[in-house]
């Protein structure tokens, strides 16, 4: 277990370096203006992890810091996802608007569900730390909501022949993997006993660091001008038919919003 803990600390340094280099990559490639909220997310995660290693673990200061930072992470993550979602559907504002409402609604539903569960836990004397348990429940629900939204974006890229640049495609794919990793870690941590937390955190830090590597390698200044499509290789007739369907959905949602 001591060896695992040491490896975990090394991975913490590696993850900090990964986010710091990713910020440098975004800055030198002049992508910070395009991915503003994602840049803010990367900067905040870097600063947060550095402070996490400085503040004594299992102290009140650490607990207060954790409870303060997590909601900020959720907000920045949601904004970063909406940012890339807006880029993917920049020519389909009706779908983009309804998608933003759907994400906001799902996060709101997660908060309401968590508050209801907290009320029930207070009635249950066997629950030792109901607030802490509910905070982790809320965190997992919000992460799952963000994951479902990223999966929706990825599905659009896989199914519809939307013309995008390479950076957007790379960003969407890595984002999907990133939130899949985080949501899986929450689920697994809730199912396994407490002594499994350190190995889970080791795996989580390792995989998140790999995501940073993929972002660093995949995002570039040239990537904004290189066209890219993923998914099916449709023939010209099928592409036009699918894009016509997407345009029709967009027009319907625009009319519904006006009504």
Count of beta strands: 2
- What kind of sheet is the major sheet? 2 strands, antiparallel
Name the strands of the widest sheet in spatial order.
1-2
| Alpha carbon gap, first and last residue | 61 Å
Rounded to the nearest angstrom, the radius of gyration is 20 Å
How much strand content do the residues show?
under 5%
Helix content: over 70%
Helix and strand succession?
Answer: HHHHHEHHEH
The SS-based structural class is mainly alpha
Give the low-confidence spans. Answer: 120-125
Number of domains: 1
- Counted by DSSP, the helix tally is 8
Shape: globular
Mean pLDDT: 76
Description:
- This protein is mainly α.
- It has one domain.
- Helices cover 80% and strands 2% of the residues.
- It contains 8 helices and 2 strands, in the order αααααβααβα.
- It has helices at residues 2-28, 36-54, 60-88, 93-122, 130-159, 166-191, 197-218, 236-258; strands at 164-165, 227-228.
- The chain has a two-stranded antiparallel ribbon.
- Helix 2 packs antiparallel against helix 3 (60-88), helix 3 (60-88) runs parallel beside helix 5 (130-159) and helix 6 (166-191) packs antiparallel against helix 7.
- The longest helix has 30 residues, at 93-122.
- The relative contact order is 0.13.
What's the topology here?
Layout: H1 2-28, H2 36-54, H3 60-88, H4 93-122, H5 130-159, E1 164-165, H6 166-191, H7 197-218, E2 227-228, H8 236-258
Antiparallel strand pairs: 1-2
Helix pairs in contact: 1-2, 1-7, 2-3, 3-4, 3-5, 3-6, 4-5, 4-8, 5-6, 6-7
């Amino acid at each position: 277990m001591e060896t695992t803990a040491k490896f975990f600390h090394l991975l913490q340094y590696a993850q900090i370096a990964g986010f710091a280099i990713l910020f440098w990559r975004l800055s030198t490639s002049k992508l910070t203006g395009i991915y503003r909220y994602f840049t803010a997310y990367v900067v905040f995660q870097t600063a947060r992890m550095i402070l996490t290693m400085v503040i004594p673990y299992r102290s009140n200061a650490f607990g207060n810091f954790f409870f303060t930072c997590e909601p900020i992470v959720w907000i920045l993550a949601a904004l970063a996802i909406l940012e890339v979602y807006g880029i993917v559907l920049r020519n389909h504002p009706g779908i983009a608007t309804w998608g933003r409402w759907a994400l906001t609604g799902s996060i709101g539903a997660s908060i309401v569900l968590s508050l209801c569960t907290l009320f029930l836990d207070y009635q249950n004397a066997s629950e030792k730390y109901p607030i802490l348990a509910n905070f982790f429940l809320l965190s997992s629900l919000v992460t799952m909501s963000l994951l479902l939204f990223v999966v929706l974006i990825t599905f659009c890229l896989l199914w519809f022949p939307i013309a995008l640049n390479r950076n957007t495609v790379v960003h969407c794919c890595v984002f999907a993997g990133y939130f899949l990793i985080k949501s899986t870690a929450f689920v697994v941590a809730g199912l396994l006993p407490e002594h499994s937390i350190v190995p889970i955190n080791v795996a989580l830090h390792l995989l998140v660091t790999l995501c940073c590597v993929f972002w660093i390698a995949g995002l570039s200044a040239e990537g904004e001008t290189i066209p890219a499509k993923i998914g099916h290789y449709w023939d010209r007739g099928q592409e036009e038919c699918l894009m016509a369907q997407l345009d029709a959905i967009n027009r319907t949602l625009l009319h519904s919003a006006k009504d």
